[in-house]
Amino acid sequence: MPSIPSTNSETETESEQSSSSEKSSNEQKQASKTSDSSNASSDEKQEQAAAENDNEQEQASAQTGEEKVAMLDAQLEKELRDYDEQLHKELEKAEEQKQAQEREHEAKEAAQAGLDGEDEFAAGEETEKQAGSEEEQLAKADSQQTTKGSAAAAENNSSQGDQGKGSSGTAPKNIPSGDDDDVVARQLREAAENEQDPELREKLWEEYRKYKTQQSTASAPPSNATDKQ
Fold this sequence. Notes:
This protein has helices at residues 3-157, 183-194, 198-219, 223-228. The protein is mainly alpha-helical.
């Protein structure tokens, strides 16, 4: 009988050991599950973080590409704007140079025209002076010839006497004085005095005599008025 309790005690001990072993095994399993779950959760988090990181990198890469394109566009636009400004300045400079050359050319032409005009004016004055001098010389020569011809004609006709014809340079005795001659009478008298042809000179003196007679008749008072007085 005393051996029974001993067996129960062993049985209880074994049972307790078995229960403790099962409990420890369960705890180990539970811990393993917890560890596995924790590891799985950690892996998921890492994968999620890696995915998010990849996504951010992709977004950053895409954003960087767009920024590069925008930067290149802005740089190209700036270069084109600078080129247009430079081209505009060059065109303005070329236009100013062209206008300056045109103004200089016009000024030279105007100056040349002025010099030409002065030269022409001076040449015209010189020509007029020469012409006037030549005319004076010709007139002087004609006057000398006329004087010589008149003197020679007077000497040649001095022997013919006073026949109403007169001689060159002198008036016949029946010709009135020319002190009161008007312009027409003076021209007729001078023409008659300077004429070398005796017949033509006689006609001129006759015309002069008629003209003077008409002047005297026109200036004389009417005969009826004289009789009444």
